[in-house]
Amino acid sequence: MELWFTEKHTPDVNFSIRVDQQLCSMQSDFQRIDVFDSQEFGRFLTLDGYMMLTEKDEFIYHEMITHVPMAVHPDPKNILVIGGGDGGVVRELARYQSVQSIDLVEIDSMVVEVCKKYLPFTACSLDDPRVKISYADGIKFIRQREAEYDIIIVDSTDPFGPGEGLFTKEFYGSCYKALRDDGIMVNQHESPFYPEDATAMQRAHKRIAKSFPISRVYQAHIPTYPSGHWLFGFASKKYHPIKNMNPQKWEHLGITTAYYNTKLHSGSFCLPTYVEDMLKDVE
Ligand code: SAM
To answer: Is 58-282 assigned to CATH 2.60.40.10?
Structure first.
């Protein structure tokens, strides 16, 4: 008998992975948390039945959401990660000696515990002495912060359930206030392909563009996310994502990656015409 994990990408499109074993299924105060083992994608985490990350392709998402802002900001020391309880973003940040503090604000402590137990490949740096984990709602946490961070990375679930508030104008305004004068915010920005995801993407972009002087979108191919065509938001008070990226300086750091590189960095901001048109419609 075969066991399959299936996620509905639209009411008419399913995405399925054949599963060898279900390793964990728990219900927290916020969501259902499942971990599976599979031939094709290795171990993978789902929340409320939505794919969060797989062992095989998580490097793409975590490298692109982290190294793009880190290669632009000239001296990123204090970083805030909102969401990100699997630890993948923290793992990538911890590779920078220059980083002095990483605040991780995750609403659900059970996600961190499950990932520490079953997904050590993403949770491996959560014990880094520079990491401070707060189990709190990112929306409330950010309201109390002012000019404290060089970079904010919003590694949230999709804009419904606990993640909904992380896509609002109020939240983006609070992120602006929590950043220093040359701060950068990067966020998980959904996808342009399926109508529901595209609407969420446009709504987020409109709100971010109203909150930051520089607001761009970049892309990556993530096989296990709906359509595989995934976007990230790059919002900045001062630095341009391509003009202010110093390839030699980043390459000199000697950080090895499997997806990100400084040529791809610039290329990822070159978007398909239909995506550019979607963004222009709301700018
Ligand atoms: N890379 C994944 C994606 O793009 O969907 C996200 C991974 S990470 C597991 C998402 C995390 O955001 C979850 O652990 C969830 O608990 C957390 N989260 C959702 N809403 C939140 C909120 N309001 N404050 C803090 N964390 C939140």
So the answer is: no
